[in-house]
Amino acid sequence: MSDKYDVIVIGAGPGGYVAAIKAAQLGLKTACIESWTDKEGKNRLGGTCLNVGCIPSKALLEISHKYEEASHDFAEQGIIAKEVGFDIAKMMKRKEGIVDQLTGGIGGLFKSNGVTPIYGHGKLLANRNVEVTDKDGKKKTYEAENVIIATGSRPIQIPPAPFDGTHIVDSEGALEFTEVPKRLGVIGAGVIGLELGSVWARLGAEVTVLEAVDTFLPVVDQQVAKDALKQFQKQGLNVVLGARMTGAEVKRKLVNVTYEDSKGKQEAKFDKLIVAVGRRPYTDNLLSEDSGVKLDERGFIFVDDNCKTEAPGVWAVGDVVRGPMLAHKASEEGVMVAERIAGHKPQVNYDCIPNVIYTSPEVAWVGKTEQEMKAEGEEYNVGTFPFAANGRAMAANAASGMVKIIADAKTDRIVGFHVVGPQASEIVAQGVIAMEFGSSAEDLALTCFAHPTLSESVHEAALGVAGGAIHIANRRKKK
């Protein structure tokens, strides 16, 4: 078989494997390079998301949520569940089983679509040549008409709290605990920190989340963020804002943490410390000096709006380029690039990429926040509806949170859609579809929603934009 391809993809995460499959479906001879190996040294497809990110974390979130429900919420619903317990080893085994199934599934998809997997570390050379170094250190060079870089990202390590893999860990290590820590510290109250903190808090850990900024979830609409924070605090998450880490030292199997907040210097002791302060693009030994690909000032690969680098025929997608570090954003970019290589002209609508925090309640949003609208001086109308007034949410014993819709005051076009509450990750898709099709709030208000459903809260919030909600008192309009 020739070592020349129409498309070579470096990285088999959600951006890379999707790009490879789409390229092959479009009739392009495609290969996908991946260096990931498991603990036994076996090659693994799927990247961070499937192996140590989105999927295993959601498995543990679901399991711990069910345990939390059985332990604390069943009784008030008339279900008697005596001596509810859990088995950490079985939880981890189930998580690994899901990961195995999905990563193996990608191999099957590659085979059925004609994608050639190449295992090893890929490095882009000049003129779209790609050098692959396998596990044994052997090198081989492949040639391509087009190269798609999809190498993803890795956790950021901060000097005050270097990882030791046992007591001070990153998000990957936090998915591998063999027992519930009595006291758990989490550095960073972002998506990853809140999700991982929630898992172990539900299983009995005393969790303290230290966040450097003074605002909780500053990228989230603040009405929604404040509602979420109240729910997390009720669940026992101790969220400390404005806490700047100054040091972490392991002594006698405990992590001694020092930080500064508005009250001055503080100390805390934890059995485990998770550092979840963000991720950085993975470009280690990725580009030769003459590859023609440039990095921006933050270390991301520089690309245009269509994910094209400055090197002819070289593209980059996902966490390694600008924009939110989200698996679904990476996949959409991968599809767009494959289509463009094949001669089509699609674009990613970056205004319609949803964000989700898979805590309980879930937090999800798409588009602009109320704070952004105010900062831009735009006139807008808002409709909100609480799940406390939703029959299906009450029946499900999950009546916290709300749906919030923001619409342009002049056009009534929906510009922001925010949810905190049950199944927010699913409900937000309704907002994404509405915004993708340029829907007005009135369009949603005139749509018939099934009863009883959680989605009726979307209907009521849309009605509320114009002050016409049915099942809750409307705000009086200012005269």
From TrEMBL:
GO terms for cellular component: cytoplasm. Its main location: cytoplasm. Residues 353-462 form the Pyridine nucleotide-disulphide oxidoreductase dimerisation domain. The active site is at H451. It catalyses: N(6)-[(R)-dihydrolipoyl]-L-lysyl-[protein] + NAD(+) = N(6)-[(R)-lipoyl]-L-lysyl-[protein] + NADH + H(+). It is found in: Cytoplasm. Keywords: Cytoplasm, Disulfide bond, FAD, Flavoprotein, NAD, Nucleotide-binding, Oxidoreductase, Redox-active center. Pfam families: Pyr_redox_2, Pyr_redox_dim. Binds 1 FAD per subunit. NAD(+) binds at G188, A189, G190, V191, I192, G193, L194, E195, E211, G278. The active site is a redox-active disulfide bond. This is Dihydrolipoyl dehydrogenase. It comes from Marinobacter salarius. The gene is lpd.
